[in-house]
Amino acid sequence: MTNILDEIEGLPPALYDAQTVAAVLGRSGWWVHNEAKKHRLGHFGSSNRRQFSRADIRRLMHLRDTAPKPGPVAKQTQTEGE
After folding, report:
1. Residue-range definition of the domain harbouring residue 12
2. By the 8 A CB rule, do 29 and 19 touch?
3. Residues 58-72: pLDDT tens digits?
């Protein structure tokens, strides 16, 4: 398995669009845009044309790796007398 940092270092020096970042991270482009929209990471550009640096990709990797995993949903039961 290739180390993700090697993949980042293999990218040409530039700014990267959300779809490229999403492909590297194994996430959707929507997820990348949403994290930028919530100001969880730095980016360049406007809402419809965000671009990310290598440092931004590293921050996204940290968010991805530390994000809480969804757990099972508890089934609600009704109590008597309701």
Report:
1. 4-66
2. yes
3. 877 777 778 777 667
Residue 60: predicted pLDDT: 72
CATH number of the domain that residue 29 is part of: 1.10.1660.10
For 44, list phi and psi in degrees, rounded to 5: -115, 145
Asked if residue 82 belongs to a domain, the reply is no
Does residue 73 lie within any of the structural domains?
A: no
Beta pairing, strands 16-17 & 51-52 = antiparallel
Task: Please give the tally of structural domains in the chain.
Answer: 1
pTM of the model: 0.56
Q: What is the pLDDT of residues 14-39, one digit of tens each?
A: 788 888 888 888 888 888 888 888 87
